[in-house]
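Suppose you are handed a protein chain with no further information: no name, no annotation, nothing but its sequence. What can you learn? This example shows the usual starting point.
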Amino acid sequence: MIIAANKSRYWRRLCSVYKTLVRHVSLAGIHAIALLAGVSCGEKPLSVDDLVDRNVNAMGGAAALHAVQSVKIDLHIVDPGFEVNGSYYAARPGKMRIDITAGGKHVYTEAFNGNRGWQWKGEGDPVAESAKATAALRHGVELPGNLFGLDEVRQRGAKLELVGREHVDGINYYLLNISLADGYSTTLYIDPNTWFITRRRDVRPLHVDIDPTPTSIERRSSDFRQVEGVMFPFASLELDLKSGKELERATINSITLNPPIEPSFFDRL
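A reasonable first move is to predict its three-dimensional structure. Written in structure tokens, the prediction is:
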């Protein structure tokens, strides 16, 4: 069940009724009413800023997150049709590149240099990415988790909105909608037990240049580990929400923070 985030007036009225009942109803009856209502009158509803603060603290704190100027992530990727290794690089103010190898051979590269996207398909010269593929690369580096903390997204033009709560697999998640400057929107699921973002849902193609069909996708992140004071998920799974089909699975082998990266690295092969 999704509970709207802006029900503070309802909450206050319900708590007033709750306190009135103290004088007339048994203790067990009061607890039962509160549980049925789904509220705790001793707790103040959390705001967007509260959730941002709790997530940032859980991920290592603002100082540690902001100290990450660049990152290299070596990972193993499994799709239904292939299995490859990748090296993902990202650097402030918002550049990324991923090099793919199969059987020990460099077979593919995608990059976004902050202005344009390009790809290399294993032979010949690199070519420009389509507008939609470029946007997808930009979204990946802008969203919190690889390079930026959740507290930085609004500074970069994104909007955050608490849209409610939802029970999924026994966890009553906080749902935080993030809208980037170009209009792309996704919903982050924050686990109140850890304050990590462990699920993300949106409608998008998994690989837009391979199949541009918009798909309802859930990304699950798990196996959080600390790297130089910052928490990272070392495993992810992407599923088609409608069919339940597994679309892609990734396992991180290693993460290096602040590796030296030449600026031209994101411009050319």
